[in-house]
Amino acid sequence: MTPLQMHASFFDRNKDGMVTLKETYQGMRAIGCSVPVSAAGSLFINGFLSPKTRPPGKSASASLPIYIENINKGKHGSDTDSYDSQGRFVPEKFEQIFIKYAKTNPNALTSKELDDMLKGNKDPGDTKGPIAAQGEWKLLYDLAKDKDGFLQKDTIRGVYDGSLFYKLEQARSSSKIKKS
């Protein structure tokens, strides 16, 4: 599996190679998103990616499945290019995020630096990509920033192979157990 497929696979709760609306919702809740964010996010994500990833000859479905094998076809513009067109991780592009935008701490981004990165990555004439990028990065910042308001480089790297999602889910499960 490519890193992008591994990223998407976290949301494939039943491991059948597809991510339905319900599974995206469940995955978002598992990593700590609120009910409204998970509901809106699953509609937006699956609504955008399902038609792009649907194999030729496959009928549309009300569950708007995202086909993990074709997830690279859902890559949007105005992003960091840390995934290539095949869904492989590009370390040089990842490092460029920090070289260009991490001014306060060379291994992390502040909220303002994140905003600067989003502006800097906007492709001229691209209307959908910036919306997707903004949603992804702002959600990541809200879920994974540290106590000092930094989004750490190692944390961000975990998004690209999906490992961060498992850590967030585990942390959320652990905190629920402690509250019981």
TrEMBL record:
Protein name: Caleosin
Superkingdom to which the source organism belongs: Eukaryota
Pfam families cross-referenced by the UniProt entry: Caleosin (PF05042)
Domain EF-hand: 11-34
PROSITE patterns documented for this protein: EF_HAND_2
A molecular function (GO) term: calcium ion binding
InterPro entries: Caleosin-related, EF-hand-dom_pair, EF_hand_dom
The family this protein is said to belong to: Belongs to the caleosin family.
Classification of source organism: Eukaryota, Viridiplantae, Streptophyta, Embryophyta, Tracheophyta
